[in-house]
Input
Amino acid sequence: MVTSVQPAGHGPATGGDGLDPAALADAQSLPGRPFEADCDFLSPNRNLAPVTTRLDGEDRLMVGGCRLSDLARIYGTPLYVLDEASLRAACRAYRQALETVYPGPSLALYASKANSSLAITALVASEGLGLDAVSAGELLTALQGGMPAERIVLHGNNKSREELELAVTRGITVVVDNWHDLELLAQVAPGVGRPVRLMLRFTPGIECHTHEYIRTGHLDSKFGFDPDQLESVLRHLADCPWALLDGLHAHIGSQIFELEPHRDLAGVMADALALARSLGHPCRDLNVGGGLGIRYIATDDPPSIQDWVRTVATAVAEACTTRGLELPRLLCEPGRSLVAPAGVTLYAIGSRKAIPDLRTYISVDGGMSDNPRPITYQSQYTALLADRPLAPAEEAVTVAGKHCESGDVLLRDVSLPAAHAGEVLAVFATGAYNASMSSNYNRIPRPAAVLVHDGIADLVQRREQPEDLLRFDVLPVRLGPVQ
Ligand code: PLP
Output
């Protein structure tokens, strides 16, 4: 099993920790970036490709100092590639912007639903971030990846008793979502021997879609307490000796390009904070959730991490100051904007079907099982041939997956050079909600994942094998022996 390779002849793309400014500036001036000569190195969510993307001497794509087609050959396809420099740059952008702009304490928590693994946990922990988890699986990954328990919060609209037990015994903050959480906590928390640290999630009446948002009194959402219930739940918690209500939480949506909704959110949350503190809760934390969008296609123009943090932090500080509130610790929970821009998925191109006067399909060796976003949300992506990224577009094609589903299409009507079977296609911005939402539909094994950095590729997720998919099957004896 190859777990770490340095493909021959590949020099580092960046120096040291992958963020050496001189090396990055140098990479920027290389004739090699196939697009985005104006790459935003400080806010990776504004780029289509990872910040270390460049071309080698023969105009082939490299990321993190590794030639993509070499990675495909060594590790097979489909392959998730994660660029360490992009991931670290995004972590630092959140952390540094919070420290610079917000006058109080702050902490960015990585929303690990976006992509949960030991390696990513270790990396974000080393950058000083915390983490939000929504299940026992994500919690275990966080703990084993080295995230300190005091920097983890547990979310979820239907947490199990076991998940709550795991959290409270390990000193992890629980984000209370509903009355059912409180009933279960009342059973498991008193046994811990100290008050358990809680945050309270409520729906703020701000609903976001990618390019628009609305303010309403009530939201049709399965998450969090309705604003009307806030006071009664706060009063209830004031009478629970096992509970330490130390924060409030709200999250307004994902892939958001507007800043205005977050400005509004600050006011709504500061009102709730004033109420909670007036009822005796310390509520030292205010968690504004995640949601910053990223660039999937050339026309996407999301705000930078720095602008998002400046807006949020200024609005929270102002809203608290106006209400005479001591500044809370400001928490946020970015997922997509931290990890999506670091990801590239490599596929091998296979069959082709040209339907005259209608459409040409080319098929790849993955699809909706490794990236369910196009079939689920009609999401769009950007792709290039790994070894011919500068070749002129010759045809409009639809890139289909290999699953037995007509809607299994990864890219619809995109322009590409005429691609041959066996060529490697690189699809960008796949670091979030791809691996974590992957499935084994059609019993197709999940891809491997590698972390690339300074010309080294480390295996961080082994490729599943077809036999692995049988490991939980049980064949009752009366149905006959396995042949
Ligand atoms: N926090 C909560 C509670 C969420 O539900 C989500 C995702 O929907 C996030 C954080 C992360 O959002 P994003 O990936 O858009 O930053």
User: Anything to note?
Assistant: The chain has a mean pLDDT of 92. The chain has two domains: 4-83+340-465, 155-334. The first strand starts at residue 4 and ends at 5. Residues 111, 114, 132, 155, 251, 254, 289-292, 333-337 surround pyridoxal-5'-phosphate (CB under 6 Å).
